[in-house]
Amino acid sequence: MKAVIVKEYGGPEVMSYEEVDMPTFGASDVLVKVEAAGINFIDTYQRSGLYPVPLPTTLGLEAAGTVEELGADVTHFSKGDRVAYTSVAGAYAEYAAVPEEKLVSLPDGVGFNAGAAAMLQGCTAHYLSQSTYPIKNGDSCLIHAAAGGVGLILTQMAKMAGAFVIATVSTEAKAELARAAGADEVILYSEQDFETEVKRITSDAGVNVVYDSVGKSTFEKSIDCLKPRGYMVLYGNASGPVAEFNPATLGTKGSLFLTRPTLFAYTADRKSLEWRSGDVFKWIDEGKLKLRVEHFFRLSEVQAAHSALEGRKTTGKVILTP
Ligand code: NDP
Predict the structure, then answer these.
(1) What pTM was computed for the model?
(2) Which of the ends of the chain has fewer CB neighbours closer than 10 A, N or C?
(3) Whether residue 261 has its Cβ less than 6 Å from ligand 1
(4) Distance 150 CA to ligand 1 centre (A)
(5) From ligand 1's centre to the CA of 167, what distance in Å?
(6) What's 63's domain CATH number?
């Protein structure tokens, strides 16, 4: 089969499209024929070495596809079932071996592309808005990079929960997408000082929660956008990791909360995975949640896909098709 292999850390050029052996799968694994693999920002961290993984590796942490073969102990799936998963490495390939406990069935109303987007970015937006800081009706929140993969979904989920949403994006075209997703106010943080704007919009009150996936370039000012006892949810590093932080700052700035959550911890057990993916699929099926899936690349074009994502050229979901 064909797959994308990384043998050393570096830029997009370290990813090679190669003929490799089919994945071996154990008694409780399912062999999935990948129809759509999701590209996520975390893949770029693993490729660059910011998040080290054992090398050589096949990147890709989510996909949707069909069941091709079953391990002897698999009980809940049959050959030909439409399925999706996240948090298992190796999705940038024609086939992937996935432990049964990580796999969910794809409902009829959810296609492969949406299924791939739902698993990592959809479940992330779900845990951020339902669990890390459970948004209440009337809360205000600041969502950075709101036209990105997670950003567009999180904006819609925050609106569904009744929040007043302030979004940041880098271009006017992205601002239109954030508004269409429901953002009440959009700040072009590439041109405007977002802290000043948040204070203006909230009449100096600040927001209940900041969802910050940008990291280095936004972290400090994000903290200053919070109300007393507000929640700083730092969940990514698109601009680079936050280097140092003195916890005493949380006290002087109003008894704030700081957390650095990961999807893995919020979907570690089967119940959480089924709850989150089930909600996301249901909302897609009911038309409450609209996924923007517009960037498609072949497996062989993976270098261009990573360059586009890291170059801030994409909006919504980026999909690799074998
Ligand atoms: P996105 O589609 O959101 O792409 C990243 C966006 O970040 C860009 O489009 C860009 O939007 C913005 N950005 C700001 N500064 C930079 C920069 N210097 N370089 C590149 N991009 C920048 O990606 P994803 O939806 O895949 O992921 C979003 C974030 O969420 C990532 O940081 C990722 O690591 C994190 N994440 C965390 C998870 C967790 O559980 N902790 C799970 C899933 C994702 P703009 O041009 O508008 O600034």
Answers:
(1) 0.97
(2) N
(3) yes
(4) 8
(5) 13
(6) 3.90.180.10
